[in-house]
Amino acid sequence: MPRQIFQLKVSLTDVTPAVWRRVLVPGGYTLDRVHRVIQHVMGWRDCHLHCFDIDGSQYGEPDPDGESALLDELDARLDAVVGKGGRFRYTYDFGDWWEHGVVVEDVFGADPDERYPVCVDGAQACPPEDVGGPFGYRVFLAAIADPTHPDHELMRGWIDGREFDRAAFDVGRATTLARRLA
């Protein structure tokens, strides 16, 4: 039987216009690898804690002090915790609280001529790290667009003075990063 490929649509919640990615990942990936794929196709830098909420169970990196009840993401395979049509939540950066809705759009046999993971589609640039969650991102966008905004210079410094094109998304770069780092 060929290995199963999961087509996931990952959408950042509470952000307009929508920031989303469609990615193909092997069903045999453990959730820690799915985490790395999401990080790189979305454009995050993996600087913060994260967790998956799937059917009422939470998965992530277990707390060495035992203070959180997270199940170990290294012990959970994607194909064991969700199937076609399944939905779950992935949260990144518990301070900014970037919540992503993930839908398993399809499950199919792997193409022997394809390398996985692969990002096949998406829209919009990922918000900068540590910008303050969805609310902070709205403030950031307003400030960088308006040179007279009181936080314009502060927010430009946040992105090291570079231009920020919120519509920019490069599917080829997302695939390259996901393959290299997942």
Q: Can you describe what's shown?
A:
With 182 residues, the chain is α+β, with helices and mostly antiparallel strands. It folds into two domains: 4-125 and 166-181, Structural Genomics Hypothetical 15.5 Kd Protein In mrcA-pckA Intergenic Region, Chain A; 127-164, no CATH class. Helix content is 26%, strand content 28%. It has an eight-stranded mixed sheet. Helix 3 (133-145) packs across helix 4 (152-158). The chain is globular and about 60 Å long. This is Plasmid pRiA4b Orf3-like domain-containing protein. Residues 4-171 form the Plasmid pRiA4b Orf3-like domain.
Can you summarize this structure?
By secondary structure, this protein is of the alpha+beta class. Helix content is 26%, strand content 28%. The protein has an 8-stranded mixed beta sheet.
